[in-house]
Design brief:
alpha/beta, Rossmann fold, 2 domains, 5 strands, 49% helix, binds S-adenosylmethionine, mRNA 5'-cap (guanine-N7-)-methyltransferase activity
Length: 238
């Protein structure tokens, strides 16, 4: 995935880089934060499997605003990911429009805090259903949509939206919106959380397909596990 962006964020701390010394304390701090996070996860109950840890992790992430996000050490990776999503969403919305669909409905599986709301607005869709396992993310997604609506002039179109909190690997969602068929199901950087068991992966796939209109599209992004392990093994701090 993201080779150029990852290299960019990684290179200042590399052994050959003259700036690597001054980056070390920052690196150590990050390592300590990671260790603390691992400890917190260890004490959480594991009976519910990975999903409760995933939800707890995303519940803890604060919405910190654009300025702080731009200071993040993964800002280039985020930008790269966003660019990929924009291209993907733009391309498949175009395909749907070419089929003369006048009212476009989209399911966002694992919507997070609503990082793609603006992309759906630009794509002029008509209906969006946002689903996520993390309660706080769904709340922030609703808030973002509300802000977007408030900023919209009355003559400007904004899609209608529904928000659902659910574990998409364990609950079948079709019953929650029986009357809607989707032109696109979009699941961005989410699918890798579904492979804890075969049954969970199967439920996630059912959720992606159940209400997809014939000829509709599933679009998704997921990290390349082989590439991640390869890079971890090659890293200085492995
Ligand atoms: C990396 S974030 C991506 C968020 C959003 N799709 C985006 O691209 O901005 C992954 C999201 O998947 C959600 N997620 C993980 N496991 C899930 C599950 N079993 N059911 C629903 N959502 C899940 C997390 O809560 C998180 O919001």
């Amino acid at each position: 995935m993201s080779s150029s962006a990852e290299q960019e964020s990684r290179s200042p701390g590399s052994a050959n880089n003259p700036g690597s010394e001054e980056k070390r304390p920052q690196k150590r701090k990050r390592q300590e934060e990671d260790d603390e996070q691992q400890e917190r996860w260890k004490v959480q109950k594991t009976v519910e499997g990975h999903c409760s840890k995933v939800a707890a992790h995303y519940n803890e992430l604060q919405e910190c605003g654009l300025a702080v996000r731009n200071q993040s050490h993964i800002v280039y990776l985020r930008n790269f990911n966003n660019w990929i999503k924009s291209v993907l969403i733009g391309e498949y919305l175009e395909q749907v429009k070419q089929k003369n669909r006048h009212s476009i409905s989209v399911l966002d599986l694992g919507c997070g805090k609503g990082g793609d709301l603006l992309k759906w607005k630009k794509g002029q869709i008509n209906k969006l259903v946002c689903v996520d396992i993390t309660a706080i993310s769904v709340e922030q997604c609703i808030q973002r949509y509300g802000d977007m609506k408030n900023r919209c002039y009355s003559n400007k179109h904004l899609f209608a939206a529904e928000f659902v909190r659910a574990d998409c690997t364990k609950e079948l969602l079709a019953e929650k919106y029986p009357d809607i068929m989707f032109d696109i199901c979009s699941s961005q950087f989410v699918y890798h959380y579904s492979f804890e068991t075969l049954q969970q992966a199967d439920t996630m796939l059912k959720n992606a397909c159940d209400r997809l209109r014939p000829g509709g599209y599933f679009i998704g992004t997921t990290p390349n596990a082989y590439e991640l392990v390869k890079r971890l093994e090659a890293s200085e701090t492995n």
